[in-house]
Amino acid sequence: MAIERVHFFNRYKDIIPDFEGFLESLRQPPPVYIRVNTLKIDSGDFISLMKERGYDLFPVEGIEEAFRLNHAQTPGSGLEYSLGYYHVQGLTSLFPAKILDPLRDETILDLCAAPGGKTTQLAQLIQNHGLIVANDPRIERLTILRSHIDRLGTTSILVTRYHGQAFPGRIPFQRILVDPPCSAEGTYRAGGQPPLSGDPHAFSRLTGLQRRLLHRAIDILRPGGTLVYSTCTYAPEENEAVVDEVVAMGKAEILPIRLPFAHSHGLTSWGEKVFHPDLTKTARFYPHQVNSWGFFIAHLRKPV
Amino acid sequence: MKDYFSNRFGIPGDTFKAMRLLRSGRTIWLVADVLGLDAAFRSLKIEASGVPLLRIRESMVKPTTSALQLFGQRATRNAVDLDDEALETFLEAGTVSKTYPVEPGYVILRWKGKVLGCGLYGRGKLRSQIPLTTWSNMKGRPESAEP
Predict the structure, then answer these.
(1) Residue from A100, A221, A232, A297 carrying the catalytic annotation
(2) Among A59-63, A225-229, B81-85, whose mean pLDDT is lowest?
(3) Residue B117 is part of a domain; what is its CATH number?
(4) What are A157-177's pLDDT values in tens digits?
(5) B12 within some domain
(6) Predicted complex: ipTM over 0.85
(7) Catalytic site residue A112?
(8) Chain A: residue nearest B19 by CA?
(9) Domain A32-89 classified CATH 3.30.70.1170?
(10) Which CATH class, in words, describes the domain spanning A10-30+91-301?
(11) In chain B, how many domains are there?
């Protein structure tokens, strides 16, 4: 990694605890995590099979379907991958669906679904007993999503291709996941691409899109329904500021997040901007706290 | 169409209980028949539903590898169990020349009880019908055994 690029993150030195530790974590490649697909194989059988086949597999305390895979050079290939026994997914990327906590027989929308790790995880959590609408406007990314659906055997997913900010409002969804396009600062670790936040035009376009997506999602959420808004970036403009807007308008309330993984609370101010005090209930995941991608997650409920 | 799996592979009919079949072009899709499904079809423009089950060809239907990986465990006939040697040959060449006790036509390919996907058997030759990208991935095993 061209570590000189970490100047992108200097503006966060007052909000990220142990900032030097954070920078050091960016110099390290993230470990590979996988999710066993319990729609196709029992966890115990999976562990036995993978060990028999020579994989260096370690369970993750706190998420029983997650494993760290050591010495995996191309984890997205191989017989077991092709059979749909597992999906490669960052540890923190597993959190949004876990927090959304969908139940059987619910109708769920993943508004920005591709490439599909979180969507197929939702299907796994309800064991295909419910309806998941996986939406994404980008056709090339839908092709990847479709390939994961086929491989993982998720029969509960319908795919749509609307612009998320104009998603039809004819179905009152009980749960919605909004994981919008973001500047991806959280994926900037060893070998990573520079984040989009270095481009002011892209940054401005993203924050506008994120706002419109979250507003639309809340509009089509059933009253009393819950929503998770997540990004893999640190920028408060893409996180707390977006959530603060809907909270300030009374369109949503923030629910607490309970996960057995170290994290920091969301911010209540950034620069001149002051956010609703409940923003502390949102969660920031940094790579020196949880050795994976950086993430921001807010758990919201639409008032009845 | 549900009868196809019963007739060809002996897969019990109740396997598809609580499932719905939908035809789009030359593909039959399998989707969980759940609450809200009809409303979704009425209200949304659906690009794809569940997983592909069968491809309809001129004179026959072909089961998809996705479907066989899901339901092939329950097959009682027209399934070929590959041993390690046959699997190696198969992964390398995509074809095994050997006589198997199955009827000519599409068969289920298994290895150590795990369903790999669809094969085509006839005249003492077994050919892979597994999609090329999946096949290419399968050949890349097991990459993680290196220190």
Answers:
(1) A232
(2) B81-85
(3) 3.10.450.720
(4) 999 999 999 999 999 999 999
(5) yes
(6) yes
(7) no
(8) A155
(9) yes
(10) alpha beta
(11) 1
